[in-house]
Amino acid sequence: MNSAPRPVAGGDDPETAAREPVLRAPSHQLFALIDVNSFYVSCQRVFEPWLNGRPVVVLSNNDGCCIALSKEAKDAGVQMGEPWFKLAPRAARLGLTARSSNYELYGDMSSRVMQVIGEHSPQVEIYSIDEAFAGYRGPLSTVLPFARDLRADIRRKLDLPVCVGMGPTKTLAKLANGLAKSFDHLHGVCIWDTVPESARDTLLSRLPVQKVWGVGRRMAEKLQAAGIGTVADLRHADPVVIRRRFSVTLMRTVLELRGEPCIDLEESRDLQDQLIFSRSFARPVTTAKEMEEVISNYAQRAASRLRQRSSQAKTLTVYARTAAHSPWAQHAPSTTVPLRSPTSDPLALTRAAKALLPLMIEGTRYAKAGLVLTELSRAGEQLAFDLFAEPAQEDSLGPLLEEIRSKAGANAIGLGRSGMKTRSAWEMRRDMMSPRFTTAWDEVLEVSA
């Protein structure tokens, strides 16, 4: 988007433009898209301020590839997805700092961001770990102050930099957010309808169609084959033809680009169809004893996630697999276990997961394992007309474990082999991980007077 024109006419002050009466009527729903800039890197910088202004990368599982880059790292020529083992020899010359993925920290900071957004808007849709849509209604004069106050409040309370884009539709709010990120003179806030129409037209005519929210690479190729190469082309396309040739979803996107709201906020989502917990190993697991430790650990983490969502599962699938391109023997055992009744009980899930062990081949070099929980329902719900199901047992163990972990840390306690205090050799390698400043008592930041 760097090639796009300035969204505010030359010499115009964004605040002055934002006060022009070009927005919809006050009763019309406006959408805000709030996005934390370089989220993983920004979370690291909150507790390690000496990283500000320096090139920083965050690495994937087992310290594999770069999955998050600071602006300084991008300017230094570091590429997204670049393997760390190739980057490490020149890290010192680039002044580059690497951090292992600290998912505990990122998840907690995300929850705090969403809480602050909820203090400013009663309508919030959490879109991803670092993004959320929020609804807005109010006088035209308060639109820009609302966006600026929200941005400033997140910075003040959490020290995280965010950009806010607002528009009459979610799709336009997403585009406005991109402008807020791309143009420094907007100071992190862009109201779509305050951008002069001529500038909007020029911008959309330069943006490739794949830049539209919801249009992926394959869809973009199909659209280009139909002569629709830019966002402007898509906006001007006939909605009926788009629906007939592509889908009703893409037709809604066309209408949204024209300012007609077609995609509502999803404040309360239905339960997801499944919950997946999987990890690659730092080194291959070759014995049933080690694999028992792995799946016990995963089952209890999955149980914790179910409990956080107030959910329960009726079916568990557990699997393991060797590396896809390994020269060693290939094997991918898998089994599905129907649970006696819907549950989030860590003991029941751990017992069920052990059904994988007899399917293993001792000595095989397994590189990954995982659990898939399906047939999810709300916690406490009983399946109707299930005459042969056993009555659900009272689950007091799960809450007890969660209470202990909340006070003593995530790794303070576990069942069976997953309760071992020492780190296992198979566990994900995170040699450059910062402390979990907000979720582990023994890693809380210490401040000296």
UniProtKB/TrEMBL annotation:
This is Y-family DNA polymerase. Gene3D superfamilies: 3.30.70.270, 3.40.1170.60, 5' to 3' exonuclease, C-terminal subdomain, DNA polymerase, Y-family, little finger domain. It comes from the Bacteria. PANTHER family: DNA REPAIR POLYMERASE UMUC / TRANSFERASE FAMILY MEMBER, PROTEIN UMUC. SUPFAM superfamilies: DNA/RNA polymerases. The lineage of its organism: Bacteria, Bacillati, Actinomycetota, Actinomycetes, Micrococcales. The keyword Cytoplasm does not apply. Residues 31-216 form the UmuC domain.
